[in-house]
Design brief:
By secondary structure, this protein is an alpha/beta fold. The chain is 36% helix and 19% strand.
Length: 311
Amino acid sequence: MGPHSKLMEVEPKYLTGDKEAIEGFIKRFDVFLFDCDGVLWSGDHVFEGTVETLEMLRSKGKQVVFVTNNSTKSREDYRTKLTSMGIPASAEEVFGSSYSAAIYISRILNRPPSQPTVFVIGESGIETELSSESIPYIGGSDPSFRRTITPEDYISIASGEALDPSVGVVLCGLDFNINYLKLSLAYHYIQRGAVFLATNNDSTLPSANKLFPGAGAIVAPLVKMLGREPTALGKPSQAMMDAIEGKFRFDRRRACMVGDRLDTDIKFGVEGGLGGTLAVLTGVIKKGEWEGEEAKLRPMAYVDRLGDLMG
């Protein structure tokens, strides 16, 4: 079988409007992993049919897990957002990139006892999850880092005087107050041996039906300076999939990843060996992106919007 015929064999199934195919698809899985931004909502706008679809899946006994690369919110923050949008959820059903990074740092990464501290580029969601694993941190939402760099800063950073010797990790996520000072400190910590981590590498994030800079855009200057990529702990990192599987204990062949990005969500499900992947066209993915012999990633199926699963 040539590569072309193999690609044809896995042509994504268009489910919208096909009631029988939708029912067959849903029956194949016990667990549905959902990306949030671009799938359930955009900004503060919940897509029509989202709440009803999740209720339908739960009524059929399906386990629902919300898997998000948005590092700005903790699991509890996400539960609050889900609930406010009419989506019943517990914090335990949320698995975010900040939590994934905290788990990685505390349970997998072997940090020297003298360097337990994390220098954070990011928002309070990262700080909350680091604290949940008793990991000390500096930077992040601390207002003292939200300022213009001074001539004195250059000197004290270069000499090491401004650097905390207990920092052994630099963790970069989406930071709404990114600046030259934070990037300079992060760069010099990494140059002195700190482990370079990112919550995720999404280049953009969808909001108000448009795209805005994502965590990958925030970490990009460091990548350019250092000439290497960080270890990313969000989708499509399989470290995140392993952590999710370890927590929820499910059969990967009976699980489906639902998302709006080929390079993160669909890749996450395909490389994680999940039984299925479902693309929705309310976020980043555009219909036909997976067509052609050059396509490396293809969802098993796709719908125009999540609510189409209601039939």
